[in-house]
Amino acid sequence: MASPSDAPPKPAAPVRASAATSKQLRKWIGPLALGLILVLIPAPSGLTATAWHYFALFAAVIAALITEPLPGAAIGFIGVTVAAALGLVGKTPADANKWALSGFSNDAVWLIFAANMFALGYEVTGLGRRIALLLVKALGGRTLGLGYAIALSDLVLAPVMPSNTARSGGTVYPIVKNIPPLYGSLPNDGPRKIGGYLLWTGFATTCVTSSMFLTALAPNLLAVEIARKVAHVDISWGMWALGFLPVGVLLFAATPLLAYFIYPPEIKRGDEVARWAGGELTGMGRITRPEVTMGLLAVAALVGWIAGGRWITPVTVALAVISVMLLAGVVTWNDILANKQAWSVLVWFATLVAMAEGLGTVGFLAWFGSRAATYMTRIPLVPMMIAAVTVFFVIHYLFASITAQATALLPVFLLAVLTVPGVPARAITLVLVYSLGLMGVLTPYASGPAPIWYSGGYIPTKDFWRLGATMGALYLGVLLAVGLPFAIHFLR
Known about the structure:
The protein is an all-alpha fold. The chain has helices at residues 13-40, 49-67, 72-85, 93-100, 107-125, 127-139, 143-157, 164-176, 195-212, 218-231, 237-262, 271-284, 289-307, 314-327, 333-338, 340-361, 364-376, 381-394, 402-417, 425-438, 449-455, 461-490. It folds into 3 domains: 27-100, no CATH class; 107-339, no CATH class; 350-490, no CATH class. It is globular, with a radius of gyration of 24 Å. Residues 1-5 have low confidence and may be disordered.
């Protein structure tokens, strides 16, 4: 008969599970407390109780995205469900249901999904690894050199690709994603070796290039039309580029270096990795047929995005390429179904788009914009212009779409600041529209490319928010310190 000492030890799994549950519950405290406090505060004057309660829910959702008691997609899913169930958006249950699902019809959401599918094609065929090895062989001696190579690849495409989601997420990201594993840097094993730096550099750079050219970001074109109608300011391609030139050159040159110091990679040099990459390329042999097919499809997508705007939308180009990938056997439907990350990002961003657009639907954004604009016109001229640009920039935390912000708030801010006597209309208009691309760096949902680079897994959620706030403050500071004076003195 076995003695008590011979009995097997009790499993520790329940204890670990209990600790994990306790940790998860603690992560809910902040978001729930924030939402409850806002709900208990009476609705401000000029805003309905329903709109205020919706804002409370939105604030709780954003806080939960930061603390992460559940994955981001699950939090967004719960958020739109609660809003629809309580009737916070829409006059009828049918309207609420239509709103809750509206994010899934958003073009940017499907471009983000397509970018993940392109990355899958690069991975499955080996083309991504081959291109990454070529880059590492040529520039991998210094990590900073790789950072600038990634930045330059985005800059070259920026003037001719109005969709920064297609440019950054669909073209640059699938290649960059293949570089960190060559250095032994994986999302769950050594992400800070080099992966975090490279992915943040790729993402932050596209926010700069999106503001450098009129045709580098689709909302820029919308903003120019709004400026013409509301402010009576005509902005040509050349004027846009010239006005942003001092800011653009400075920020573009500084971004890879800033990221190098703010989010430093552990691997600074990799001479041995560069030599190893050459050997790996030799071992891979000649380029295979699947690689050629994927390469041709990538070029076809690029051509469609650049030249096909009059006949076909970017998202249709992307979906067409994915269809051909399936027909050509580059990927299988099971490969697509198994890509949990892509589906998760699709749900996450679709629900956040709906949540952010809900702020406009209930009237919160119009109320906030008019209130902010009214207060700003009561202060002296120069501080007023600085405050206007700052508020317009920071309020993007409430948006999951740059286009939505340009549509909802740019006319309000332009009308408000232009009522102030002596305001330089062209200068303040230019600086406001220049901020659209830069503000895309703020959050993991601030722009189309954001959730794609975030989904790579190399930058933890808290780090992404912290880096976004830091780089956003730097970008805004340079825009105000360099861009505003330049526009006032040289572009009046």
